[in-house]
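Q: I have 261 residues here and want to know how they pack in 3D. Can you give me a structure?
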Amino acid sequence: MKAADICMPGFLPLFTSVEAGQKERWKDAVRILHRLALLEKKMGGGITDVLRIGLDILYVPGSIGMAIAVETGRNGFIWDWMRLPMPGYRQGMQTPWADIRAVFWPPVGSDFKDPFRFLLDLCHSEHMQGFFPSEDRMKEFLFKANLLQSMVELRLLTRTKEGAAVVEARDKRHKVEIKVEPLWCLTKAEDFGTWTWDLFGSSEGFLEFFMMDTGGHIPPATIWDWWKGWKVICEACLDAVTSHRLFLRTEWLMLPGEPVG
């Protein structure tokens, strides 16, 4: 039950897939401990480590859950999940998932030439196999979810004057504070354009997602400036993590309707 309490937020998108008519795919969706046990071989742990996996590795099913949310058009679940406090993370504190870096960084390191390999391998497990059309489509869903999670982090950062100033100044020193590993920076420009059009449909769709729960009081020009600053900071973060082994140019990654310059 403790594991279920810890993991339930990350599994919320699984239930949206049931609502979307995929019930036959997720007949075991509520069996949280069983799903955690699927990670034993991947993590090298035993039965006694299942609760630890539930506490420390939630982002594994959580990331897959976010991909499912994207596939089923429930992007709002990403916003809701990241703001939701993680039960039992710190005694007497309400710590949202968005503030827990371990939630967004893989346990075994990233192969930046093949991002999400760890998650893709999980998707070939007995209970996941066949849910997604193909591995390429799964990568697409994971990239989209990663981008949306990064945008939510930006949105939460710019809620404060200090955070907004960091982004407006395009301060690359903030790269060490980034919570969501910005794997979307690795996307090819043509894929980024196609996938973000699928996500938002237009610049208005992006602005609407960004201003979710804000009352729409942020000038669009400010949001676009924040996004451009965020691209610079995320590029610096990923460039540092990959030890300059990749050539990144995030200014080529343009959202629908994004102003040039």
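Q: Anything worth noting?
A: Confidence is low (pLDDT under 50) at residues 1-6, 12-19, 25-33, 46-59. The radius of gyration is 18 Å.
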